[in-house]
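Protein modeling request. Please complete all fields; requests missing the sequence field cannot be processed.
Requester role: graduate student
Desired output: 3D structure, C-alpha cell encoding
Chains: 1
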Amino acid sequence: MYWPGVIIAGTLVALTGSQIPDLIIGVIIGFIVLNGTRRILLLR
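Delivered output (44 residues):
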C-alpha cells in the first residue's frame, strides 16, 4: 500500500541527490502507521 510513495521518493532522491523527499515520505508513512496503531489501541 505504501510502495508507490517509496518508489517516488527513491526516484526523487536519485534524480535530485537530496534526501528530503525520502524524509517527507517517511514521515507521512510514519503518521499513517501511528494513526493505525492508535485506532487499534482504542478498540480495547
